[in-house]
Fold each of these.
Amino acid sequence: MSWGVRENVVPKRCAEFIRGHLDHRRGYNDYNLGGYLIWSLYDLDNPVFIDGRMHSVEGYPRLWDQVKSFLVLSPGMIDQWNAAVKRWDVSYAVVELTPVRYYFHDQAVSVLAYRFPLSEWALVEQDSHAALYLRRAAFSPVFLQRYEIAPPASDVDPGRAITKRPWRELF
């Protein structure tokens, strides 16, 4: 028997990047990643956006309703996401990489490509479970050039074509 962190179910590399480079920054994280981020970044001044304590913490149910507006596939999802990034002054985002595939006219569609267009976000860390994006407007070009990685994370098979059309046309 051994003890340790199962790296395939937690955003360990993303947390290490945050610890090393993003102290005192406001970020967004997906709901399922918040508990690990609290545990791994407990001594930093980086508040976790949301986590599994949602039902017992004052204000979380209201926050969850707002978060759902940009997680549920809908015509307004991307607009809601962009508004949330502005409202909460998000400088980075830790998101789950899910095996779910979305298709439009038999072509795979990357929801991440819509939420994190490379003109506005830089991918700086990725593992099998999560990806860490930095909002370009919040960091210097020199910093981004040093840490940006390619190709960008995708929630579709890289071998399939990715449809990049205006979001609302997909509905």
Note: The chain has six helices and six strands.
Amino acid sequence: MLNRFWTWYEKKYPVIAPLTALLFLLQLVHLYWMTTNIVFFRVSGYSFWDPSAFWNTVIALVDYTEIPAIISSSVLYIYQYQKGIKGHSILFLFLINSQWVHLFWITDEVIYAQFTGAAAIIIPVWLSWGAIMIDYLELPVIYDTIKKAVSSLRKKAPVQSVQASELLRNN
């Protein structure tokens, strides 16, 4: 059964890799918000970007696209591991799956409340910074999935152009 899945995955890889990268590109919006609204506020006392309640809701919804991105990239790195790319795959599996700690334990809302003094439960400041650092661990994965997406699209493009030239010759 797993062999059938990996065969299907390999065939669909030229679509899966770009979709995974797209999901991660959305995370850049969240990371920008976190940097300019939370980190800069804590460091300088000023928020460099304070979006309205509507945009905060949109950003929160965008942040939840991280869940399918984590799952999709985890499958991608397991696939690579099976293909013989061991160390790289294990490192990136660790980096991306560390996000679960941040998603379900110390959320952005808890950190924001902690840094602004509105927290119902007080956690150590170092722990808040640790959760923020976990969020930034996805940056190498974002870069890597974008590289994989571009590579898969480049490999796919010549096949499509050959098929198009065959169609033109036959007509």
Note: The radius of gyration is 20 Å.
